[in-house]
Amino acid sequence: MQSVVGNFGSLVLLTLPIGNPEDISLRALEVLKSKELFVSEDTRTFKRLLDHFSIDATQKRIISFHDHSHEKKYKEIFEILKNHRDVYFVSEAGSPIVSDPAYPLVRYCLENNVAIDSIGGISSVISALELSGLRSQPFQFIGFLPRKDSQIKEIFKSLYQYRGTSIIFESPRRLEATLKLLIETQLNFRVSIVKEITKTFQNVYRYNHPTEIDFTEIDFRGEFVLTLEAQNQEENNLDNEHLQQLARNVLNNQGKKKDLAKLLGEILSIDSKEMYKELVGDKF
Prior knowledge:
Cobalt-precorrin-4 Transmethylase, domain 1, 11 helices, Methyltransferase, Cobalt-precorrin-4 Transmethylase, Domain 2, alpha/beta, five-stranded parallel β-sheet, 18% strand, 3 domains, five-stranded mixed β-sheet
């Protein structure tokens, strides 16, 4: 696999199973058997996967790389690539670019004229979408939510304007609190909570509204993907620019700004203070 950018080897992003090892692709399995150089987020997990397929890990060079890796680790990998050798990046599970630490290394390699390649496989994002029972087109991947409650609520409000399904990763220790924040927003979402995708205890909890979520039936242990689809789409996804222009017209006719901001805030699921700032911008 030759670099198409520089005269180096390629950094190859290798997707691994997310739960069931039998989901590995034939291409990925061939790489595990025949290639030597790997960069791994969790070397112990990777060695266990090799052992599952009766592959001798002692014959591999496995370099640890994670979110807190120092610059010297980047340089170590780059020196290997400079010697015309391909390096295969694996995460603990799934794609190393979706929620794991490959992105900084990808950017580093591109900035140094190293080509990037990909050998795909199963995706928790797509699997969650398939299992959710929610609208599949369009959809957007949000990743992990921020830590602050206020920021999470603002994200939920923004997702309510989206004409499709939003896919969110959430840790088991935070999921219950996140769902309670969703209920507090009083927004009308259809909700699917997908648990342990491809694993023995895979399950899907589906609700037509956040207030229907039954916390007693959810086992909050394991890996989760939260999927949300805003309801009343035609009513709640009116063109914001058009509505704001109408609001400006009202203001030009001596409408009360604060009252109008409250009204539009309700329609658009935007904080009334933020709506007020939009309405009294530079044009007024």
